[in-house]
Fold this sequence. Notes:
Mean pLDDT: 89
Oligomer: single chain
Number of helices: 6
Number of strands: 0
Amino acid sequence: MRAGDFGWVFFGVLLNAGAQLLLKAGASSVPPLGVGQSLSSVTRAAAVLAVHPAIWGGVAAYVVSVIVWIVALSRVQVSVAYPMLSIGYVINAWLAWWLFDEAVSAQRWLGIGVILIGVALVARSGSGP
């Protein structure tokens, strides 16, 4: 994969990862959502989330990521580009650990390492058939 093409793919991955982190930041502003909550508590949470800047930032990052991804797909085979999204797992695991103090076990890091090996193999496969 050419460096410029990888740049588009990687930019799309970064935007997608950033969107996830922003949505998590927004979601953290309300109690955990789930089954069994009263309608009023869900309504209050929805009102908070509807105006939360991190939620809107996450949505905006997703919109821009779709545009960037379309550009990337016009330049790279989908069988090469799509596995590159797995880089986002690495970015998000590290940033979730750093920003949100999430526990990332050794087993999880090992799994992420396996993902990286797979991404490297796909990237090195080139753009041939």
